[in-house]
Amino acid sequence: MFIPTLVLWLLSASPEAPVTPPVPVEAPPPLMPADVPPLTEAVRVLLRLTIDSGGEVSQVEVQESGGTAFDRAAMAAALRWRFEPARQGGAPLEVRVDVPVTFEPVAQAVPLAAELPGLAGTEQPTTPPKREPPVFSTTVRGQSAAPPPVAVGDFHITVGQLADVPRNSATELMLLAPGVMLANHGGEGHAETVYLRGFDAGEGKDVEMRLDGVPLNEVSNAHGHGYADTYFIIPELVQSLRVTEGPYEPSQGDFGVAGTVEYQLGLERRGLTASASYGGFASRRLSLVWGPPESTAATFVGVLLRQGHGFGPNRAYANAGLMAQTELRLGPETKLRLFGASYGARYASAGVVRETDVVDARLPCGPDADSQFFCLYDPNQGGASQRHLASVELTSRLERGGRFVQQAFAIARRMRSRENFTGFLQDTPPIGEAQRGDNTEQSYQGTTVGLRGRYTPGLTAWGQPRPVELGYVARYDDVHTRARRLRDKGGAPYATVFDNQVRVTNLGAYLSLRGAPLEWLTLRGGARVDAFLFGVEDLNRPAADRQGARIPEESVEAYGFFASPRASAEVRLTPRLTWLTSAGLGARSSDAAGLSDAEFAPYARVTSGETGLGWRWGAGPSTLELRGAVFATRVSQDLVFSETTGRNQPIGPSQRLGAFGSARFQWEQHLDVLASLAWARATQPLPGASAWKLWDGAVLPYIPQVLGRVDASWRGTATVARQPVVWSVALGHSAIGPKPLPLNRYSEPIFLFDVAARARWRAVELGLAVENLLDARWRESEFNYVSNFRGPDAPASLLATRHFSAGAPRTVRGTLTVYLDLQEDPP
Amino acid sequence: MKRCSRRAFTWMLGGALAAGCGLSGTGGRSITFRMGLRTALAPGETTVGAFTTDTGWRVTLTTARLVLGPIYLFEKASPLQPQALLRRLGDALLPTAHAHEGDFFSGGRVLGEWDREVVFDLLADAGQARVLGRSPGIAGMARSLSLLLQPPSSALGAEADVMQGRSLFLEGVATQGAARVPFRVAMDFPPPVELQRVDFVPIEVDLDDEGLFVLEPQPHRWFTGARFERLTVPAEGTPVDVGADTQVYRALSVNVRRYDAFTGAWEPAA
């Protein structure tokens, strides 16, 4: 293995005046090229970088080659490095530096001369350089230093080695952030319910989801306002996530109540990676990702096909997705990123079952406990989903390091979901007829188009380069959203719950400021304003009223506006220890379907604050980062799941108090461990209670109070039959504390272990993954409500009782992966 | 690994409790109680199924079977519950506004239920409670109940054979002086459900774990106002088949669905 060591010999820009050299801010090491054999000696590549006055690497040239593969890897990494610019007399200036990049075998790893002292350290060269005049040297080690967080709970998570941990979808990458739990009651293709920081964020109502700037929350989705399905994202193409827990970043927009999750795409490994898996329950997975060697990580193509019978009756699924992106350089100062994705899926769902029926073995499956646990009532449950997405992003570098980013996106979306939560309870049948069934079909189709952008002037003020950022978003949704009841027999629709054509325009803008009035104090602040125009065509009005016949349609238009200030203060207690306090307001817009004509649309307001500590240690490629904070949140209008409508319904204000801690340790490219523990208590405040009484009130059910998560991966090299074999083992562990249930009950705690092992010889890799290693019988979702699944003529139960959807049992999957470098041309 | 993890969680939760973080607060308390049936004795009587009606007829039932269920226990009081004179006066002066809550009965939350049908032989257990089984519930004061009377559904299976598809089957003798009327009546309570429901039955029971709630049919109330003398007894003395067009049938049909046709009692756990 190689140790990523970069030593920068920085040339002074002027022999006459004192020059402060550029200081690396973000310098992820290059990846070892895919198809090179294990190194027996170090390989050195000498790069010449042009670092502009904004601290960006504007040009990379190879001065001394180490071989095509290594040159390419070094260049790809260098293009992502970021620096505090060199300065002369305080003014930033462009400089050129020669940077040797060394790929070293593990056995010959040399002790490094010095660790990087923070982000501003420079040293005299320890080795006299060959070229003249070398004045400065800086050693950079380890993984990238993320941009400064706006809160302790603002996580820039590089997936990196933790991609080894078994995961079913890109959605599960969210588990890398503390305090996140996912649950799915609808099947493989139905969006996951996200629990974050004591919020039941539903399938997106309280968490803003973005994919490289493209919004994923769907307004007025029939299944729930803000529904965000991330199944279409190919996990192999997710380079990092930014999870901002709480509304603290001025750019956070609608739905950013519990926080914002942004998927950032990229493919580090160049060449072609083909992977085929087969496992339990006939699960098959075929992925193909390709990154042209001549391009950066921002250019890639990925295809993913998945299919399986599911882990129980009525759980089959099949889906296919494609994502492609190209980054074009339109000159030295401009980049154009073109991105497209297409996805289609269908799935069946077992839905929920009554606990009492499982215990009494009354479900229409085998009498044994397992058959009952995984059984179902209504086989007419499931859904389908299609999504087509395109995005164009133009990034222009301005003078003195300024930036101007413009993005346009368009989404075509269609989904249909059929769920039955109550059996035979909701229908009021015609006289003489039996209940027709409560299966509810929710459909949503339409398009979203939008623009977003940000402008960062190349100013230096208040001790900060680029202290100001202005951003905007313009989004237009034109969607048809409908819910209908389906007959138990045959599945024909017999009643329309709602049927709306919704058109929503959202215009938002934000201003973000940053300043360092004192050397140890950095202040950030800003505000975002959002305006909404809602237009609804209600297509489900009666054909007659008291005054006679009428057209069964009606139009509603409403306007809404909210402003959300945010601020944070960062105190650098020591070079490694930071105290960060943040506060902010966020908002969730109204579901257009619930508005009245000419109404000033209300919105749910979230007020959030947190304070905590962050500590970071780095020694070359090894880093340790610890974070911990306490937080409090209050929401003016919360929504909880209603089984009668199958979607979320308002319940009034709610509040949360919580704390979390997280740690990530990376040891070179051998070991990567990310662990977190989070606690949150969510309550519904007593009527009229003070906003400061965050403790009082009835505990909100279903939201786990304690969550623990460990992701770990260990990689190494071994020699088998005189052949070098690269191996890895990985572990994912979720610990979910007892979830509060109605009537002061608590669910059982859940402990899940997922493990994986891989071994690679040359271009071929074999892998084995086991999910739910201990084969725990766990309940993925739990509810407490009234239902009647006995039949249309059976007496109905009116007493709320526990229902659950079963979690997956132990699943074993084998994978064959082939890596093809496809490198032919010199870089 | 699992054991360690579980232990760590236990410690953590213990710490949370000690710190006052508390595993409490969603409200309410879940219980399990038993549901039973027992035929109420008429005032002053010692024999089940024997009573004197307000019209002076002495009735002795020889067969009495009923399909009933489900049974729901509500938290709110019945609007038909007898109230103190002062309260009634107050209600008359300042009447309470009632709005439909969306449920079929505005009894509020259901605290307990027996969600199945049962064929009950009113004379079989000689005044002893027949325990139907255990039922989930919510601890608290239940102030009214509701139940359904309906033809036996297929869910009852062979148990319903004895009912021959009827909801209520009564057989007995009514006597008044020298008059003797043997009778037999079978009733149906077909849909709609509004005509099957017995609503607003006042109760006052404090539901708690392992107690026994006993629903008591009061057959002596069912014959209020019944005029057996209007029935024509067959010459051979065989029982009169009480038809739907008779006064006795109509009285019975109304009375058996009145709020006072049933009552409930609570026996706390020993």
What's the total number of strands of chain A? 50
CATH homologous superfamily placement of the largest domain in chain A: TonB-dependent receptor, beta-barrel domain
The CATH architecture classification of the largest domain in chain A is: Beta Barrel
Q: Enumerate the spans of chain B where pLDDT stays under 50 for 5 or more consecutive residues.
A: 17-23, 99-105
Task: State the secondary-structure class of chain B.
Answer: mainly beta
In whole angstroms, the N-to-C terminal distance of chain B is: 43 Å
Strand content of chain B: 35-45%
CATH topology call of the largest domain in chain A: Maltoporin, Chain A
Shape of chain A: globular
Biggest interface in this structure?
A: A-B, 42 and 39 residues
The helicity of chain B comes to 10-25%
**Structural class category of chain A:** mainly beta
Features of this protein?
heterodimer; A: 827 residues; mainly beta; TolA/TonB C-terminal domain; Ferric Hydroxamate Uptake Protein, Chain A, domain 1; Maltoporin, Chain A; 3 domains; 22-stranded antiparallel barrel; five-stranded antiparallel beta sheet; 3% helix; disordered N terminus; B: 270 residues; nine-stranded mixed beta sheet; four-stranded mixed beta sheet; 4 helices; 37% strand; globular
